[in-house]
Amino acid sequence: MTKALGLLVALFALWLALSGYFKAFLLIVGFLSCLFTVLLARRMKLLDDEAVPLQLRLTLPLYWSWLGGEIFKSAWAVSKIILSRNIALSQQLIAVESPLKTDMGHVIFANSITLTPGTVTVEAAPGKFLVHALTDEAAGAEAFSEMARRVAAVETR
What we know:
The protein has 157 residues and is of the alpha+beta class. The chain has five helices and three strands; from the N terminus they run H-H-H-E-H-E-E-H. Helices cover 57% and strands 12% of the residues. It has a three-stranded antiparallel beta sheet, with helices on one face. The protein is elongated.
């Protein structure tokens, strides 16, 4: 029941954000369409931890803001490399250990690495990732350990 209610709230919030309509009739129709979607998902037995990740903590918006800053800094560094006359690349594949315990934590960590310009998660195995880094700076272990620490603060063990 908690997952169904969480999904209903999330769907209705998304509907409000995308529609922008606040007239009573449209709010009722939007709510009913979201309720119908949740009932269908419940009947199809789709309401599990993967579909409705309520186990993620409320620190997720803080992580998103930190990740946004990291993406901006990395994008700036990659832009400087691309626009410089002497492109100084030191591409490499590195193994990054993942101390995270849950599948959701591994997914968030791997996607965060890929979202950061200059790095791409190439392969995932239990407890580790193979990451392509564009420069030595991007391949720094301290950045990955900081990211893993912040993802661990978001996930629930």
